[in-house]
Amino acid sequence: MNPEQHKPAFAEFVILMAMMTSIVALSIDGMLPALPKIGQELGVIEANNNQLILSLLFLGLAVGQLVFGPISDSTGRKRPIYAGFIVFMVGCILSIVSTNFSLMLLGRFLQGFGVAGPRAVSMALVRDRFEGEAMARVMSYVMTIFILAPMLAPAYGQAILAFATWRWIFASFILLAALTMVWFALRQPETLLPERRKAFSLGRILLGTKEVLNHRIAFSYTLAAGLIQGAFLGYLNSSQQIFQDQYGLGERFPLFFAIVALSLGGASFVNAQLVMRFGMKRLAHISVRALAVLSLLALAISYVQQGNPPFWQVMTYFLSAFFFVGILFGNLNAIAMQPLGHIAGIGSAIVGSLGSLISVPIGTYVGLSYNGTILPILMGLSLLSVLSIGVMIWAEGTRKARVLRV
Length: 406
Hints:
Elements: H1 10-29, H2 35-41, H3 52-75, H4 78-97, H5 101-129, H6 132-146, H7 148-163, H8 167-187, H9 202-214, H10 216-246, H11 253-278, H12 280-304, H13 311-329, H14 332-337, H15 344-368, H16 375-396, H17 400-404
């Protein structure tokens, strides 16, 4: 079948891609209200270690993308997505039956590994249909819908906890994954025709990896994306403790978490409107500089306040900073993928996996550094945004002056 025939309309395509990537966000943020209860039931002594329930999913996501992306170049896009959903559901089952923390973490790793299939291959699928600024526009719309998941996920998890145990959260993940897989199977045609497929081989994967790593733009913007994702992961890891413990929000935690997520979603929508006019590189450079300035200023003010500023100051910072993070999310991966259309499957795998492998240890370290104050997350965001500025300037080389002139 020609993928240009019988393809879903633009709006349905965007929503479907958003649903497939939203399983990741739901798997992360839906667990946040349950972390203390899971830790208590499974014998976790140090509260910060509950954050590993998030970090292990990100680690599985990083490894899984290296597998599913290259396979999709040889088998087509649909089969790896089906396989990923199945592995994800197996991981959910392990978490449901877990009686110790190690089995829980194994289940979370498998969930991340499995959901890497729809996450990574959907990016290649978007690249099959769009490129350049048009791809950035699609990804921004996907991110706008995608943000609804972290906005609603903590409330979703807390609602389940009001009537059932935390194990039912994983059961609901299985149901949502199955429904999304059926929708994808029925409505989305294959986008990689047989004549465009390439035989699966380790040599081709290594060559593709070498090409990504040696391409200045692809590698640099992947590195920058990993640094920004690491800062965001540090926030995710710490958010439950910051909101519920440090500021005593209790059951209001999902509300304020959703407000911050709304800033991210709004940024993605704004980016979709602006990217065709100003270009994704210009928007990315402006946003990362704004993020660095805001974070350094917030760090200085909070240091004077011994890491416990008034809550309104914290929310003002989060809303402002994560607006620019949302702009970066909408552009950095699209910039990295731009020169990789001829190896979209491997390209999306390397870009996604390398970004995750960079972000997981950074975000885990930032999260585990939580000490009852806001300082560790502010230090992480400040340092990582400044490093990203340097990486992005280096990526542009002698053209940086033209790119950065606004």
